[in-house]
């Protein structure tokens, strides 16, 4: 049985380039997708992803990190009846208070095979440790950084010839593939 029937009102938080946002917007516009992206919020006023969102006729909000980001964004999430929040390259840590106040699911994409390499510089650390695989994970957001239950993850092989840049490119490609799949999985039978 579907846990979340109908398209869910979705908000996306970004901080930069927005390539995952783009893949989510593309997915959301498919007939069978389970989400409708209502608004995009960035803590970085210059985030490139905002341009793509506004070209896609999605409401965008710039809320600087220092300007009471959490209270201002919660107000918007409530105003627009947001059912699910997706973090897509959002580089600010949300407080336990925010998570509690919002009270709806929050998902995040992280560029590693969690629980490995929480935090930053994931590809650099995987290469340094001579790992055979890297990858990406979609997980539920909890108070503890990058530690909520993993919904979906996918591996890529690290080749001897890989460097941080080439690995980032490979992982990003699978990120775009698995974030929509993870949302489907989460909203149906997670
Ligand atoms: C992505 O690789 C995402 O996994 C990562 O930032 C990049 C954003 O790219 N997120 C994190 O590191 C979160 N801790 P994008 O702006 O092109 O989607």
Q: How are the SSEs placed, and which strands pair?
A:
Layout: E1 8-14, H1 19-28, E2 35-42, H2 49-55, E3 59-62, H3 69-79, E4 84-87, H4 96-102, E5 106-110, H5 122-128, E6 133-140, E7 150-157, H6 164-189
Helix pairs in contact: 1-6
Distance between the termini: 11 Å
Largest sheet: 7 strands, mixed
What's the shape?
globular
The number of helical elements comes to: 6
Whole-number radius of gyration?
16 Å
**Beta-strand fraction estimate:** 15-25%
Query: Secondary-structure element sequence?
Result: EHEHEHEHEHEEH
The total beta strand count reads: 7
User: Helical amount among residues, as a percent range?
Assistant: 25-40%
Bound molecules: glycinamide ribonucleotide
Summed over residues and divided by their number, the pLDDT gives a mean of: 96
- Give the CATH level 1 class of the largest domain: Alpha Beta
Strand order of the largest sheet: 3-2-1-4-5-6-7
Structural class: alpha/beta
CATH fold group of the largest domain: Rossmann fold
- Named at the architecture level, the CATH assignment of the largest domain is 3-Layer(aba) Sandwich
CATH superfamily of the largest domain: Formyl transferase, N-terminal domain
Q: Compute the number of structural domains.
A: 2
Question: Runs with pLDDT <50, length 5+?
Answer: none
